[in-house]
Amino acid sequence: MFLPPDRPLALSDQADTRALRVDALVGQRAGRRLWGPMHWHVGAGQALWLRGPNGSGKTTLLRCLAGLHRPEAGTVRRPTGGQWFIGHATPLAEALGAAHNLRLWLDMAGATVDAASLDAWLQAQGLPAARPVRQLSAGQRRKITLAPLDLAPRALWLLDEPFDALDDAGCQALAQRARHHLGRGGVLVLTSHQALPAALAGCAQLQLATAAGAGLACAEAA
């Protein structure tokens, strides 16, 4: 279920190993405070949409949640069951095909996927396995970077502009995958400059302000 609009983001007193929690988290970049301190949690089966203008620190917050950027202060407690952080500009080996890229990426992430499952996923997505990715469209490349969500499910999805470059059908398909993930008790935090597809309508929003503003504010669900 989604976090309803009348239920603010707040730190729970109850220990829940399936929740994503932040406590007194403060973000900075190049010595400049971006947001915080913030206290909230996103429980199992819930989604959070990070919003804000360019420079407000949305990607920095995602990277702090993933453990890839050190916050100025505060703590992050991630749910058990692993995580996927998929950035807006996830690099691909341009001379290699989709299958080779995914095998390398999954191996580095410690995820085991058999060749048959990988080939079946590529066929289902209409993606060529061996064609160099430099010859693929931006939408096809985006599908490749999102493949680990299906091939090696993990509890926490941290997605930076995941709908970018996808056509309407691709956006709807990704939203349905996200809804299925939440239905299984997963947690989702994402950024998106565009409106979310209907399948994700009603998820909670966290509005980040510019450095000259208040720092952050919780918004009602869309």
From TrEMBL:
Signal peptide from the UniProt entry: none
Keyword annotations of the record: ATP-binding, Cell membrane, Cytochrome c-type biogenesis, Membrane, Nucleotide-binding, Translocase, Transport
MF GO annotations: ATP binding; ATP hydrolysis activity; transmembrane transporter activity
InterPro entries assigned to the protein according to its UniProt record, in alphabetical order: AAA+_ATPase, ABC_transporter-like_ATP-bd, ABC_transptr_haem_export_CcmA, P-loop_NTPase
ABC transporter domain boundaries: 20-221
Record-linked SMART domains: AAA
Record PROSITE patterns: ABC_TRANSPORTER_2
SUPFAM superfamilies, per the entry: P-loop containing nucleoside triphosphate hydrolases (SSF52540)
One Pfam assignment: ABC_tran
Organism superkingdom: Bacteria
GO biological process terms, semicolon-separated: cytochrome complex assembly
Name of this protein: Heme ABC exporter ATP-binding protein CcmA
Organism: Ideonella livida
